[in-house]
């Protein structure tokens, strides 16, 4: 095996997957605009939910939204069915992440969430899936295949969801007029906080 070539091929594959998702945004522009508006106007919290690799991506996206002006936290879909639904209110928006849209652990909380009165955004690669059909909003993040040779490991799909989520978070942040000073309030530590202090943005 040519290790360097293999690394580059996998990276190219993931980049191509993201470019494909980007190319499909225009065809679903109304869905994307509706989701951006729902998040920007949200009175409660943006709650990310999922299991497995999708859950890990949800945790990262929740942190990104929270640090850029949209209060957010993560709830594990399985734990939701064992009491953590109590963290959700009717003012919240739940983003359920499942590439197939048929993950049982992700489908189980949908009806209880509807009963609570919170709206649901489906982050999925399957437009006709059970998740998409039982949600209020859809963000279609479809990839042609995964990056591994077996087409099994969540790679292209999880990367595409991460990039799409980042794009949504930063778009909403811009709509809200989130500033460098605001960012500094939430991120006073580390090299970013130090830079804002040096530039006089954070005092």
UniProtKB/TrEMBL annotation:
Gene source species: Ligilactobacillus salitolerans
Listed Pfam families: SIS
GO biological process: carbohydrate derivative metabolic process; carbohydrate metabolic process
A molecular-function term among this protein's GO annotations: carbohydrate derivative binding
UniProt-listed InterPro entries: GutQ/KpsF_isomerases (IPR050986), KdsD/KpsF-type (IPR004800), SIS_dom (IPR001347), SIS_dom_sf (IPR046348), SIS_Kpsf (IPR035474)
NCBIfam families documented for this protein: kpsF
Domain (SIS): residue spans on this chain: 35-178
Keywords per UniProt: CBS domain, Isomerase, Repeat
Protein name listed in UniProt: Arabinose 5-phosphate isomerase
Family designation: Belongs to the SIS family. GutQ/KpsF subfamily.
């Amino acid at each position: 095996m040519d290790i360097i070539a293999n690394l580059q091929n996998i990276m190219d594959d993931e980049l191509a997957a993201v470019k494909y998702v980007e190319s499909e945004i225009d065809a679903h522009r109304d869905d994307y605009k509706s989701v951006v508006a729902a998040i920007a106007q949200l009175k409660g919290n943006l709650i990310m939910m999922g299991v497995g690799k999708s859950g890990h991506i949800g945790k990262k996206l929740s942190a990104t939204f929270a640090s850029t002006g949209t209060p957010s936290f993560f709830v594990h879909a399985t734990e939701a069915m064992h009491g953590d639904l109590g963290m959700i209110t009717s003012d919240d928006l739940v983003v359920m992440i499942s590439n197939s849209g048929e993950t049982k652990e992700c489908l189980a909380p949908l009806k209880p969430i509807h009963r609570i009165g919170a709206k649901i955004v489906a982050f999925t690669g399957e437009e006709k899936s059970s998740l998409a059909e039982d949600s209020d909003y859809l963000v279609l993040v479809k990839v042609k295949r995964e990056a591994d040779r077996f087409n099994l490991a969540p790679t292209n799909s999880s990367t595409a969801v991460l990039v799409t989520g980042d794009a949504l978070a930063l778009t909403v942040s811009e709509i809200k007029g989130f500033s460098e000073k605001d960012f500094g309030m939430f991120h006073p530590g580390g090299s970013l906080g130090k830079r804002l202090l040096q530039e006089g943005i954070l005092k």
